[in-house]
Design brief:
Blueprint lengths: L3 E4 L9 H15 L5 H5 L6 H12 L5 H19 L11 H10 L3 E5 L5 H7 L8 E3 L12 H10 L6 E5 L2 H9 L3 E5 L10 E3 L7
Parallel strand pairs: 1-2, 1-4, 2-3, 4-5, 5-6
The structure holds 1,6-di-O-phosphono-alpha-D-glucopyranose (G16) and magnesium ion.
Length: 207
């Protein structure tokens, strides 16, 4: 029986990928190269600094480690301008209903996100109080597909991996959950999330 549920944030609870995209595109424009939505797929679930490295690779740009930190900071400032304007209307269909349903069944809930802005976003959209634990980019050092974030999620809930389920939209996240030994429900395209135990189009399919 499932006792705990661990949710990814971007792509599962809210669609912040569109704001990450706009902020990365803003940087690419400054460097003078095209950054497309297809390119943006490669950044899903990936840490901020690793995302920057992928963007630089796409643009064929080479900068120092110090400049990388500066650019990552600039991108985040731009991203923050977008997420400052978020409200509950941006919660993905079925997400709030499903979280409430799980809570009524006594299932404990954690967030397992790569984002350092996760708590801020949960507060903006009014879902923070539905989570018993939050494991985010400020708490883990190894990015997905490393299982660290989900193992920490189980521990924070006081549960074993075998008692939990993960909800993930990114390939790297699905891999991370499998490596942690947790049953994983993919959110999105079954042709892409082939490794998931089950795939649904959104949490609205589960309520
Ligand atoms: C999210 C996004 C990634 C982003 C990462 C870090 O992960 O999918 O594109 O690069 O967080 O975000 P930040 O720059 O806010 O720290 P997740 O794990 O919630 O899907
Ligand atoms: Mg995601």
């Amino acid at each position: 029986k499932v006792k705990g549920a661990i949710f990814d944030l971007d792509g599962v609870i809210v669609d912040t990928a569109k704001y990450h995209f706009l902020a990365w595109k803003w940087l690419a424009d400054q460097w003078g190269f095209e950054f497309t939505e297809t390119d943006n797929e490669r950044l899903k679930g990936v840490s901020r600094i690793r995302s920057l490295e992928i963007v630089l690779e796409i643009g064929g740009i080479d900068i120092s480690e110090e400049e990388k930190l500066q650019k990552a900071e600039q991108k985040n400032e731009k991203y923050l301008q977008y997420i400052h304007q978020m409200d509950r209307s941006e919660v993905l269909p079925g997400a709030e209903e499903y979280l409430l349903q799980l809570r009524r069944r006594g299932v404990r809930i954690a967030l397992g996100s790569a984002s350092k802005n996760a708590v801020f976003i949960l507060e903006k959209v009014g879902l923070a109080e539905l989570f018993d634990a939050v494991i985010d980019g400020t708490k883990v050092s190894k990015a997905k597909p490393d299982p660290e974030v989900f193992i920490a999620g189980c521990e924070a809930l006081g549960l074993e991996p075998g008692e939990c389920v993960v909800f993930e939209d990114a390939e790297a996240g699905v891999e991370a959950a499998i490596a942690a030994g947790i049953y994983v429900v993919g959110i999105g395209n079954p042709d892409i999330l082939v490794a998931a135990n089950r795939v649904v189009s959104g949490l609205n399919e589960l309520v």
